[in-house]
Amino acid sequence: MFGLRDPIENRASIFFLPRVCIYDKDQIMKTNRWEDHYTRLARDEDWLARSVYKLQEIDKKFRIIKKDDRLLDMGCFPGSWSQYGLRKVGRKGEVVGIDLTRPEQFLPSNFRFIPADVLSLDVEWLAKEIGPRGVVLSDLAPRTTGIRSVDTNRSMSLAARAAEIAYAVLKVRGHFVCKVFEGEDLRHFRVETSRHFKRTRLFRPTATRKGSREIYLVGIDLVK
Question: Is 66 a residue of the active site?
Answer without folding.
Answer: no
